Structures are given as structure tokens and as C-alpha cells.
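One thing: can you check what follows?
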Amino acid sequence: MPSTHHEHDEPGVSSRTTPAVSGPWNADKLAAAADETEARLHRYADVGLLHRQPDGDFEPDSLHRLRLIQFAQSRGITDDYLAAAIARQGDLLSIFDELVPVADATVSLVDVAHDLGLDDATITDLARLMDWDDLGTGTESDVATLQVAAKALALGMPRDALMQIVHVFADATDRLADAIVRTFHNYVHERFRAQGLTGPELLAASEAVGKPLLDLVEPTLVYFHRRAYQRANREDLLRHLAEPTTPPSTTPGEEQATVLFVDLASFTPLTATMGDDAAADVLRRFGVTVRSSAARHRGRILKQIGDEFMLLFAQPADAIAFGLAMDRFVDAEPQFPALHIGAHSGTVLYREGDYVGGTVNLAARVASAGAAGQFLITADLRDAAGHHPDADFTALPPRRLKGIPDPMCLVEVRQRIRSRSSRTTDPVCGMLLHPTDVAAQTTWNGKEFSFCSETCRQAFIDHPDRFVTTERG
């Protein structure tokens, strides 16, 4: 998304202002600021990558343009290729402004950090987390970050806790910014291209949408942060209320919880057969339901990797209720794959916005051990959950799980009142089909098979042995 500079008039309020850039640059000053030779600056000007004023000085935006040129070079883009692209598409270097102003004066972040009382280990960790390549060329924004870190430590925040928070902020905002830019490019810029716009006309159309949209980003980010902070604080209230019955942990971040994994049992063959777009639509429907069911049953989505979600529940019974809700969703949803659901209750360790430890690992193994459509839990979770009015629990024979040394006693969870109608499974893509979902059928070796589409039927006809003998997973 094309961008521009932001300054804050007051906390939580963002307004677009004129980019804060230096005045015109003479060649030696610009070369020093960008760590370039004057000869290369003149070369960039000759091919149209930098612009000069009538008196020969370089335009005020030259340092920013040089940073973009250097970035392109680091990704293998030659000067000639970049110049040709600009001549063909318009001045690309003029639309990708930075939210952090490019400064002509830099400071040594090491010196600033030492002046603030930060030790070398803290400086090194911050440099790694903030992707500071050169601690000798910090900007005012970098200095402000060091000042915040020093103030947090002075107020009593332990150093390792501060580093964890910085890590979470860096990772989360990087993913957020990437989503904003990529989504804008894919759904706005690319659609303009599909309509036949090219060159400067294409850039102008994209900027006309992108520039105003960017004004909405930071206020929206503040809004979502405040809502999320409210939810997190309410959960923390419950932890405070539980203190009379829970002794303090000797290990920071250690707590009791139930971890649940859920994924689509046939996502890989579905994608291979139906294509990326169809698979993405199934994943969208799945994701919407996981999120709404998690909120309804007091669960937190910790992460999503492809078609797999990892969730955390404070109460074991809530995890059972969530799994049953997902089972009912699959029963009712037309043409939808079966799920793997697995969960375990025990001690987890909170680190850098994530949960780690043996409980997490075991929950993942339990989920992967089930057949398509199975909801499996450990005996520990079964005991912790107690009676559940909507669930039947069936103890299974001990089995070995990958990476777990001793055989495990698992329990299958099923709905007490089964609402499932007669359904068949498409052997190609793994879709569960109500009778009305069946689009095609064929008979092989005396057995009738049903399919969600003619595409799956034809794939089966071409290679029936592959689909009859392959076990879903």
C-alpha cells in the first residue's frame, strides 16, 4: 500500500502530515548520509532514480529514494532494471514513503543506550529484536524506543519480561503490516491491473485509494488494541480472584490449562484435487467457525498454521464443549471435510506470547493420532472435565504416540444425542456428503462411491487404487 508519514497530535490519534525530510542535499552530504560514493549518486541521477534541482543539489527526498534503491539492490534488482521499471510504470520511488521519517543526522545507539543506563546485553537483544543492523546509525525513533525500554526497566519491569514483550510487539506488528500491504496490493492494485490500467495511470489509481486508507490504519490499530487489552485485563481479573486457592508459581508464566488442536482431516488431498481457491474457501468457513466457537466457549486461539488451530482453555469443560460444537458444525455443513480434534490438560509455560511445554506437545500428538472425524482427549483431561451433559466418553485401548515413550490411554468424545444424518465420504477430496451433496457416483470392484463433483469422480476413475488404499491424514 502506498504510504506517507504520520505524527501523533495526541495519544491514539493519527493524522497525516507533510513528510519530514531535510532540505536540498549537496552531493558530499548525501553521499555521507547514505554511505554511497558521489559518482554513484550522479549515476542514479543520470538514469532518473534521483532528481536534481536547477542549482545541481539533490531534491529533499533523495535520501529516502536512496534507501529504497539500496533495498532493491539487496534483493538483486539492478539500477538499470529499476530505472526501466520507473520509466514504464511511473515513479515507483515516490509512492513508497516511510512512516518513520528518514533522518539526515544519525546517532550512535550504543552511546545513547549507555547514557540511559542500559547494559550491553540489553542493547544486543534490542538490536536483534528491532532489526537494527548498525548500532552506530540510529534515528530519533530508535532513540525514543531506547528511552521507553530504559523507563520500563527503571519502573521495575524485569529485563527478560521486557524482551519478551518487545519480541511479541515486533512479530505481531510485522505480520499486521505485511497483511495490510499485501491485501491492498492483491485486492486493489491487482484489480486495477486486471481492468487494463498500466503505467502512471495505474499508480495514480492505487494511490487515490491507498493514501486515504492509510489514514485509517493507526486509529484502527489503537481501537483493536484497546479492545484486546480490555479482554486480556478481564482474564487477568480472574487470575487475581483465584489467588486464594492457587499458590504463587516458582516459575514465571507457569499455569494450568487445557490445550486443544483442531485441523481439517483431508486438507492436502482437497487442495490437490479442487485447487487453491476452493481449498481457501473451505479454510475460510472453517476459520470463521473456529473463531466464533472459541469466543462462545471461552477459548483463546493461540495460533493458526495452515488449516490447524491451537487453542487454550482455562476450564477443561470448555474445551470439551468447543470440540462438540465443532463436531456439530461439520454435521450440519454441506460438503465439508471431517476434523481431527485432540486435547490435553496440564501445566503449560507462557513465553513470548506463546505456550510451550509437554502439555502442548502431547495435545498435538493426540490430535494427530485420531482418525478423520475423531475427537480424542487424554485420560487426564477426562478426569479434569468431570460430567458433561452433552458428551459420551469412551476409553480406548492404550496406544503409542509419536515421541511419547509410554503407551497413552486416550478417550474418544462423542455427542450424546447424535444428530448426524447418513453421510458418505468423497474418497478423493475427503468431503463429508449429505445425500443432497452428492454430485456424481461410480462403481468400482462392486462398491459404489459418491463424489462432491465431477472433478473428483474423474480423478477416482483415473486412479482408483490410489484413493481406495490411501488412508486420510
In short: Residues 2-21 have pLDDT under 50 and may be disordered. The first strand starts at residue 6 and ends at 10. The CA atoms of residues 9 and 335 lie 52 Å apart.
